[in-house]
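Q: What structure does this chain adopt?
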Amino acid sequence: MIRDASGMLNAYSGGDKVDASTAALIERRRSMLGPAYRLFYERPIHLVRGEGPWLFDAEGERYLDAYNNVASVGHCHPHVVEAIATQARTLNTHTRYLGGPILDYAERILATVPDALGNIMFTCTGSEANDLALRVARHCTRAKGVIVTQLAYHGVTEAVSEISPSLGFGGEQPAYVRTISAPDTYRLGDDLGARLAQDTRMAVADLQAAGHGVAALVCDPIFSSDGVFTQPGLLDDAVAAAREAGGLYIADEVQAGFGRTGQTMWGFQRHGPVPDIVTMGKPMGNGHPVAAAIMRPALLDEFGETRRYFNTFGGNTVSCAAAAATLDVIEQEGLLAQAELVGAAFRERLQGLMARHAAIGDVRGAGLFIGLELVSDRGAKTPDAALAQRVTNGLRERRVLISTTGISGNVLKIRPPLVWRDEHVELFVDSLDAVLGEL
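A:
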């Protein structure tokens, strides 16, 4: 199993599978950008253009994007591109001046969450949003301890990399972080909510005994990095256990948010509790660097008494234009309903492949976020990470782009732009069927 330093699987590891021009570009990149960056696939792709659900390489070959939730409403959506260009021609400045666009967008996005979440603060990235959320939680609870899931990913700043097991905790697990099991709906059966709550109570007791207290339970509500588990209600009792100890519930919506799960705008809405803080990023501006943290006003009232937060580019006028245009597209093109309908048909088609391919152990998901688990023994549910890597690279050769996720690295992570339609599903399923047949 290949795991790169950012916690992602499917990393390029060198070798002789690339042509001379690609090898030269890889070496040029390495020599100037350094070795810490990673590339996807055994044969990395040189992309030069995007349009809707498609990406195009330097030779003009077209690839179906089945992975990129950053371009949530499709690559280079003309409405978003025009909004960015228009605002860039007019004014781009920060939040120290009064302005209407940031308030107009704030009003619209706050209307998508429960009334209890009444304030929003803007950043440039989801990592920064989670970093800010953690600062506020620790200030308001006067505690330091954090509880996360087994293979969680919450960002790349020092503070949030240390609560990201998928990054190796940024080097070493801090004494103030505890992990709870991923709610593996494929293997662990019923009562997963109770199991998650029990794990949380044990983590709480451990943090309290160590003198750290509990600042927050930080959770991606569909457990993207843990393997994509979308059963509603899994988090309810775990959140209650964290709150009983004085901790806050931070819902990291960077992957689950903006209609990705189909029925709801936000992943946390698949569970009962209203978060204390909701963070968002990547798809918020369809790839433009804009992110935010939405919070209960009482938290920012307390935080603001002695602390200040300023982010020069967070909430700038161009970023707000990009975010507003992305929200326009989600609303005007009915992408929540489309994600629900297309996603349901997608999962049904994938489940249909199970009769033909014993290597498919499970198909799960919500909306257009799907996890397909590959196993070497369906009866024993034995993870097959090596096969997942071969399938991922086999699909790349058929110009279909995905990656992998999960504790064992054997889950195909499928999260295409929300503009996918039935013809894209058909192409993906036919390509996967062919690759599995070959392997």
